[in-house]
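#data-curation
PF: Archiving a pair of folding outputs for the training set. Convention for this channel: one message per protein, sequence first, structure tokens after, nothing in between. First:
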Amino acid sequence: RVQTVYLSRHGESLNNLYGRIGGDKGLSERGQKYAKELSKFVNSLKLPGLKVWTTQYRRTQQTAEHIEAPKHIEAALGEICAGDHDDMTYEEIAEKFPVEFALRDADKLCYRYPNGESYLDVVHRIKPILQTIKEEDNLLIISHQATLRCLLTMILGYPSQDLPYLKVPLHTVIKLSFSDEGVLVDYHRLPVECVDTHRVKPINCEITRRLEDACVTVPFHL
């Protein structure tokens, strides 16, 4: 028997568009379009007993709003808490907190935001519900980049050092099929444009680096 779980980030948010991390902004116009495309895609699958899990953040709930299925808010799947850096752009963090920004680049897995979380904290937060997720069938989880990186790494057994750089693009549905043979992964990119929020590790992670070296891999935003 094959069980399927579908994962998606929320649609493009206003914070994604303007390069701000965290926060609780709603969807951009393109994000709203994705919410409609996602419901069309999910409806076309005709999944019996479909359930949708969102998080406590508005952007995930807005992404789910056109899908007709029972919805559950799962706070354990909320985005990594950026603490004092919440709602800031990478450029602002690099300028105002250059040492913190360099420390995070040097060890993104273990670095904890001031008054916030690390990727490892998110892993511990998700662990108690991991088995429940693996045993579900026809479950759609609408969550966030950092959280889905953690979830995918744990489910697929990826190396933990790669976790903070795993590509989880916007406007893409990730289908996980669980069977006795293991887990099969399929990516379905839906036809709605969006920004790319993936920031690769810069070559220079020294705390003495220049601002432009710190920001060299920041993805394009408005």
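PF: Second:
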Amino acid sequence: PNSLKRLWPVLSSLGVSRITISGSDLCDSDYCNSSSITESVYGPLILQGLSQSGVPRMPRVDCHAKNTLEWVLDHYDDVQKKNGGSKEEEGRPVVRIGLDNGSNPSIRTIIFNAAAKARSNKNRHFLSPRVVLVVGPERGLSEQEAKLLEQKGFCLASMGPWIQRTDVACITSIALATDALREVETSDMSCNQPDKKRHKKGDDLPSSK
């Protein structure tokens, strides 16, 4: 709960569009009743983060702490459609990433592979991916939850061999994903620039017969 209170303003300042809280196999059940997940507590903290960063977008918050991760994943897209989603999310490919220790690829690698796949489909109006990150509790994801994520289309990612606190993992993963998305957008803009050919003097003059 204390980590979550510190996280609310940081998450909103990083520009995330949606924050979902779920239960977990390795999470203390007492956390479900924490005041940290009540709107009266997180609302002012989110506004604090927004005011500090200048981010104009208010993230949507869904608290399902008493529900399992499986339930939240099953209903995630339904909630997205029910609430309409944002216009800037329409048509964007979605990259689903779950953080887990082990010999998994990096967040950057997963996002770049997804972008490359989208471009290979000859999508001339390619939009950078929208990233969904799943971060486990302090004790991490259970083996069953990791398998569940893969079954739901998530790619498991690693940020190295170190075991990180939840708040550190959240901030680091968002920063890494944001940086990778920026690289994808930058490279896509450069690819879409028209070729500039060098013209020799007289090239544009009509030929004489």
